[in-house]
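Board notes (copied after class):
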Amino acid sequence: MLPRGRSRALGAAVLLLGLLLLVGLFLLGGDPWAEDVGGSCCHPTPPELPDGRPSRPASRDGASRPPRCQLLHVAIVCAGLNSSREVVTLVKSMLFYRKNPLHLHLVTDAVARSILEMLFRTWMVPALGVSFYDADQLKPHISWIPNKHYSGLYGLMKLVLLSVLPPGLAQVIVLDTDVTFAADIAELWALFADFSDKQVIGLVENQSDWYLGNLWKNHRPWPALGRGFNTGVILLWLDRLRHEGWEQMWQLTARRELLTQPATSLADQDIFNAVIKEHPGLVQSLPCVWNVQLSDHTLAERCYLEAADLKVIHWNSPKKLQVKNKDAEFFRNLYLTFLGYDGNLLRRELFGCPSQPPTGAEELQHSLAQLDEEDTCFEFRQQQLTMHRVHITFLPHKPPPPQPHDVTLVAQLSMDRLQMLEALCRHWPGPMSLALYLTDAEAQQFLHFVEASPVLSARQDVAYHVVYREGPLYPVNQLRNVALAQALTPYVFLSDIDFLPAHSLYDYLRASIEQLGLGGLRKAALVVPAFETLRYRFSFPRSKAELLDLLDAGALYTFRYHEWPWGHAPTDYARWRAAQAPYRVQWAADYEPYVVVPRDCPRYDPRFVGFGWNKVAHTVELDAQEYELLVLPEAFAIHLPHTPSLDISRFRSSPTYRGCLQALKEEFHQDLSRRYGAAALKYLTALQQPHSPA
C-alpha cells in the first residue's frame, strides 16, 4: 500500500539528487591498494587538454536508447548477508532512474536467496522481474582456480554465467554489487548498438596502473591489454559468446596462465583480461563514465570533469566507502542518498509500459479499492492491508547448532526502543529473532548502533529482521509474525522488547520443556509470569526469592496490576508464590500471558494494529486449538519503564480509536465462529464483559 504524500517525498529526493549531481570539477587521487573484483576492457587514453589534463571521451547523451518498453536484463552474483544489503542499494539506484522494465538474474547462495526472495516478494515493484540461480551449481566449474581475492569462488562466477542463464537470453548487463547508478540503465544498454559483428564483451578500461605492473616492487599481474579492463560493469552478448566457444576459450587461457601464476588476485577480472589480451577483437571499449572506479590508486580523474558526466560509480576497493581520495566525500554522499532512500517510493509505476503486476498486487489493490475513505476506521483497515517490505537477517547471523529443546526469544521493536537491546542480550544468552519497524534511513542508523556496541556486535545468534515503515499505525502483530516465522529452534518464547527475562530463564525453559515431555501430541503453552517496576534505576533480582522480597517491599508489582488486571490475573500469582511445580490454569477473558510454545504455533492476527488486544487475540487462538496453559514456578520476566508509545497515547485520548478496536474485536470473534463453530461461543460471551484495556 502506498502512503499519502509520496509525490512530495519523491520530489524532495529528486531535488536532493539533482543538487548532488550539479557539484562539479572534482578529481580523484589515492594510495596503492588491491582492487576489487571486476572485469575489464581497454579505453584509449584520451588526448590531453592544453593544461596537460586528459580530455573526456565524447558524450553518449545523444545516443539512441532502446525502445521505451523493451525489457532489459541484468545479472548479479550476490552471496552472503553483506552482499544482500549491497545489492538493495544498487537496485534502488537502478530503479530510481530507469524508464524500462527490468529483469534481474540473481546468482545467489542459499542465505542470499532466502533474504532476497522475501525482499522482492514484499517490495512489489512494478515492471521488475527476478529470477534466482543456485551458485552451488557453478562452484564445480571454477573451484579448480586458485584465487586470492576476498570474494572467494563467488568472484569467479561471472565467467560461467552462460551455463545458468536462459539459453534464449541474447544480451545481459552484468554488475558487481558495489556499483551505484547515476543515470538510466537504458543508456548503458544502448551501447550494445556500438558492438561490431565480432565483439561479444563490453567493458570500461581499468582506471589504475594495476595491470602495468608498476604499482610496487615485484608486482607481477596477469597479462592484459594496456591498462586492462574492469569487470564491475559488463555488457555480454550471450549468443555470440556461445558461438565463440567462450567456455573452452577462458578455461584454456586460465590453465595456461596458471602454469606461471600462483593464483588470480582479482578473480574473474584477471582471466577476462588474459583472454582479451589474446583475443582483442572480442571487446568493445565502453565510455569510462559507465564504471568510475574508486580504488585507492585510481586514475578516474582522467575520465570526468563534472558530476553530470557520471553514470556508474564503482567502489572497487576492499575499503569500500572508507576509500581515500580527494572526491570520496562527494561519492559517499551520492551513495548514502540511495542507501537511506525510501524504497516504498519505487513501488509507484512512473512509466506506462504494460507488464505483469507483482504477485498479489491486483488482489491487494482490489481490497484497498473496497475500503471506504469516509469510514472512521479507515486507517486501521488500510494498515491491515499494507504489504510491508521485509529484509530478513539484516545483519550477520550464525544460528546455533540444532538442539531438541532449544528456545528462541521472539520480539519486535521500533527505533525508540533500541536502548533495550543491550540489557536484553545480557539477560538472554540464547538465540533471538527480532523484527524492527524502521525507515530505510533508520535501518542504517540501527546498523551503526549495533556495530558500535561491544555487547550487540559480539552476538552472532541474534537475527534482526527489518520491516520497513509505512502507514500511520504500528503493525505490531505483523512484526511478531515476521520474527516468529524466522525462528529456527523448536520452541519460541513470545516476549516484548521492554521485558527483561530472569538471568536463568533460558536454561530453565529448556530444562522444563524436556522434563514436561513437550512435543508430539501434547500441546502446551508455558506461562512466564510477568512483573513490572516503575523505577528507572532498579536492581534486578537474581532469584525468585529476591523477586518476592521486592514484591513485598513494593518495588515490584504484578504486570499492569493497577491498569489492566484481567490481562494476567489467571496466572494466579498467589499460587505462584509457593508453587514448586508447574500448574495448569484456565483461559479467561482478556488473558494475555507471555508464553513459550512450539515454533509452529498459531500466528498472530494481523488485523490488530496500533495498541490493544493484539496478544489477547493470540491467547484466544491458543485456547481454541486446545493448548494447555502451564505456569512455570521459577520463571519470571520484568517490564521496565519507558515513555508511552504514540499508539497507546492515541488509544487513551481518542474515543474513535477505542471504537475501532472494539469493531476489530467483533470481527475477530465472527471469524472465530466460522473457524471453530460452537466451540467459539465462550469467546463471544467474553466479549460482552465490560473490560477495556488501559
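Comment from the instructor: The first helix runs from residue 6 to 21. The two ends are 30 Å apart (CA to CA).
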